[in-house]
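Can you make up a protein sequence with its backbone structure tokens?

===
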Amino acid sequence: MSLITPKTPKRHEEKTVSAVEVEVYLRQHPDFFHNQLDLLEILKVPHPCGEAVSLISRQISLLRDNNRQLQAQLNDILQIARDNDALHQRIHQLTLTLLDATTLEDALGGLTWGLHEYFQADFITVKIMQPAIASPIADLYMPSDDAGLILFASVLEAGKPHCGKPHPDQAKYVFGDDASEVLSYALIPLQHAGFKGLLAIGSRNASRFEAGMGLHFLGQLGEIVSARFASLLTRLT
């Protein structure tokens, strides 16, 4: 009787591809990389001329640089969009705070609180020039014959926000004893339906309000504050 030896199962041997086979395949399929562009990002092809590179290598290098630049630009745009969205949300919250106010004093308090809370402002001052009002808030009203008006004449005439390093006399007038701490500021003219005033926002950060910065947000803020103050003052007359 002969013994039957069980057959040993064949092991699956992983076939390796030789460099010659790769070369033959690529020569037969010169369009291989058309659908495998991502491989070009990791392939490194030496050049026999040392530091010199072929035209195609140079083109690939430029494409990679352009791709990185475009990605960086896209990231910047996305960050700006996120910052703008957050800014609009803060403006919305401040607007709701002003709308909740039923008196001018409440609105002033809400404005000061909102600018501190939502925009991390360090110093806030409001001056009202028209109409003439009596208010328990000290130095709120600035009469037309006030000598301090000359300090802000150019800003009020332009009707646009102004930012930068504070002029010592202007800072002293609107921020008083805190003037020395204000390293940058924004002056925002207020004007709406017979109401006229000035909103000054000071910061201990020298780069917070810089000359030449975008003023769209500050212009919107001025319009919101002006409209709400004008509405509240109309109820008093």
Summary: Residues 22-100 form one domain.
